Amino acid sequence: TVDNLFDQDLDTMAHSNWFSDTPKQSPTPMTITTELDGVYDLDHVTYVPRENGGNGNLSALTVETSLDGIHWHQAGEGKGWKWDSTDKTINFSEKEKAKYVRFVIPEKSTVGDFVSGRELLLFKRDGTNKATLGDITNDGQVNDDDKTSLMNYAGLTANIDSDFNGYVQNGDLN
């Protein structure tokens, strides 16, 4: 199952259905969306293909990120990858914060028109910690203190009002 791509176990593998009955249904394009347990400053993703470089290995992958699961943007893309067993990495910009990550496997970008792999490993940027979306007071939770802060500072603008940057921005999804 697709869960094997996120189980952090290199001994397991995900593989799309074989569809032995005709007509065969192509698994691509395929979109896999995951929700993280908090907001992370992401550094890169590594696709770990199956060990033999065979059926289902990817030659391309697009990664999109979102803070709210509604508004998405492209964080990175890998294409022209060799169909072999070497790990493939997509690096992100320095300000790639996400709670949701979507992996898009383009049509006709896999061996044998299947999708497989051992892992999709997301790495956070060194020296950063998980954040809680909406936590203005930086205490690790969203509570009445955050509501009070939002009410007190509503209407402030990034890079104009000194209390916005580094404080109110933690609770602002825009």
What is the general shape?
A: elongated
Count the E strands. 8
Structural class: mainly beta
What is the gyration radius calculated from CA atoms?
19 Å
Q: What is the succession of H and E elements?
A: EEEEEEEEH
Tell me the number of helical segments per DSSP (H or I, 4 or more residues long).
1
Q: Biggest sheet, in brief?
A: 6 strands, antiparallel
Uncertain stretches of 5 or more adjacent residues: none
Show the helix and strand layout:
Layout: E1 14-15, E2 30-48, E3 60-66, E4 73-79, E5 88-91, E6 97-105, E7 116-117, E8 119-124, H1 144-153
Antiparallel strand pairs: 1-7, 2-5, 2-6, 2-8, 3-4, 3-6
Architecture overview:
The mean pLDDT is 87. The protein is built from 1 helix and 8 strands, in the order ββββββββα. 6% of the residues lie in helices and 32% in strands. The chain is mainly beta and 174 residues long. Strands 2, 3, 4, 5, 6 and 8 form a 6-stranded antiparallel β-sheet that branches.
